[in-house]
Amino acid sequence: HIDLRSSISDQESMLIAFYKACNVKWACPLKTRLEGDPAIGEGVNHFLFSMITQKLKCGFHLNFGNTHTTRFFDGEPDHLVPSSSAHLVDSDLFFVAGRMIGHCFLHGGPPLSGLSPAVVHVISGGSAETAVVEISDCPDLDLHQKIILLDGDSELTPEEKESVNDLCFSWDLPPINTSNRRWLYERLLHHAVIGHTMRQIKQLRKGLKETMLWPLLCQRTDVLPVIFPREINDVLTQECVLNSITWPSMVKNNDDDNDDECSLEDQRRVAGYLRQFIENASSPELKALVKFWVGWEVPTTSLKLEVTYSNLPKASTCFETLRLPSRYEDFQAFKKELLACISTVDTGFGLV
């Protein structure tokens, strides 16, 4: 369970303590309880896995003395590599990260996108020597600037040669000359990306093995884009969301004695506003909407929509139901309040 009344760092400590626990059957059904929040059911599990994936990508509020946020992965989107922090390795936090990734996948949660293909290759059992590393995979700006000097045929200044040679000597490599320039470029880049992170990658593998996901990665390389998708491919489209929605019935039921039901005109108008919002929304906005709707960014096969008498948009994540107020007469007002509501998805359910 997680106490939402506690600080973010305390909540993260609870998460890490759970994923460090021994003898956990990760494939078993999960029951999550949020202390201080009345939410129950499957939507709470969705919220948990969405939070885990977000923290793996954006960082935990773990204070190791140097920064307010500690990132497990550094670099550009689609070129993320494990952090070189010794504290994370010594604390077995990449082992924890591997368990988190596997646990999310086993329960249908959002994947960890944006990892470097070279890192994914090694994580999934590929040889470190055959990993194809790009200069964009090097998150250390100082190393990046030194290594990129070797890319090409332009003459290096004495200062640049000295800088490169100092790096070569520190990694037991020969100094630069006319015949080994390209070879040095590849060796330095490989060491900066893969060599520096092998301990982290081994811990990730160990965590994936604990969840029984690693054998799948080794034997079925075709699932790698599903488990570790590229950031550019991990987008939510308007068609995907629209096709998943169960729209309110637009046929008047004369046998219905419910006086609280909104008029067909109100239902058509508000449903039309939602369709217009989705058709013009960006992928991040769509993900926030779906997360508000069902608890995570993965749309289900039946996103239910209801138009009701209420003040603000609300969602029952366990029943995958979005309830929109019937009072809107203007699309811009509808859009403004919907965006305000879906921006609260990280603060919980009943606490919103």
Brief account:
With 352 residues, the chain is an alpha/beta fold. It is built from 15 helices and 8 strands.
What would you note in describing this structure?
- With 352 residues, this protein is an alpha/beta fold.
- 45% of the residues lie in helices and 7% in strands.
- The strands form three sheets. A four-stranded mixed beta sheet has the order 5-6-8-7.
- Helix 1 links the parallel strand 1 and strand 2.
- It is elongated and about 85 Å long.
- The model has no long low-confidence stretch (mean pLDDT 87).
* CATH uppermost class of the largest domain: Alpha Beta
What is the number of helices?
15
Mean pLDDT level: 87
- Main-sheet strand order equals 5-6-8-7
Name the overall outline: elongated
Radius of gyration: 25 Å
Spatial separation of the terminal alpha carbons = 19 Å
Task: Look up the CATH topology of the largest domain.
Answer: Hect, E3 ligase catalytic domain fold
CATH architectural grouping of the largest domain:
Alpha-Beta Complex
Tell me the helix content.
Answer: 40-55%
SSE order: EHEHEEHHHHHHHHHHEHHEEEH
- In quaternary terms, these chains amount to single chain
Strand content: 5-15%
Q: Helix/strand-derived class?
A: alpha/beta
InterPro entries: HECT_dom, Hect_E3_ubiquitin_ligase
GO molecular function: ubiquitin-protein transferase activity
Active site: 318
Keywords: Transferase, Ubl conjugation pathway
